[in-house]
Write a structure and sequence with these properties.
Layout: E1 3-11, H1 16-28, E2 32-33, E3 40-45, H2 51-68, E4 74-81
Antiparallel strand pairs: 1-3, 1-4, 2-3
Helix pairs in contact: 1-2
Length: about 90
Amino acid sequence: MTLRMLITIDLTNADSVARATFDREMATRHWTKAPTVTTTWTAVFTDQTTSPAAIAIAKTNVALCARAARITRYSAVCLPSNEAVFDFQVAS
């Protein structure tokens, strides 16, 4: 089965320039920004990628992107899964 990853990241004290750099760096690493939720990203890995490997890749990618954007503090939560991310919004 294809392994997918959902990650949400709080970029502590990052200004708009740093956030734009971070976003660009994540996109170059094949992460897709969630269209309706800020600082949430998804990625799809090959069938051979294990959950621990995907988590390690996510941690490395976030660290590299943060370094490129000169962001020194961040927090992240990630979840590897075989299920696709379901994205929705309600607008009243």
